[in-house]
Amino acid sequence: MQNISENEFESEIKSGITVVDFYADWCAPCRMQKPILEKFAGANTSVKIVAVDIEENRNLASRFAITSIPAILWFKDGALVRRDVGLQNETRLLESLKLI
User: Which residues make Cβ contacts (< 8 Å) with residue 36, sequence separation at least 6?
Assistant: First the structure.
């Protein structure tokens, strides 16, 4: 799972399905979310998964009204289509993917 910055954001989400994990290093649930997302990525290779550190990318966090983390935003061809807040297990991630 690649960490991206505000400068890379638009190019990373512009095509296909992209899952963006908004997190912070100090957030325990965020640290628990990372291996779940990595496993999900391995099983769902058509989905791109990237991470955004809210401490280093405050403008992105503000732009998407991130008030609780982890926050997982789903984009399809550059458009926000779903938002999940809180720790998500792999089953929940698969359910979200089916809704897109």
Answer: 87, 88, 89, 90, 93
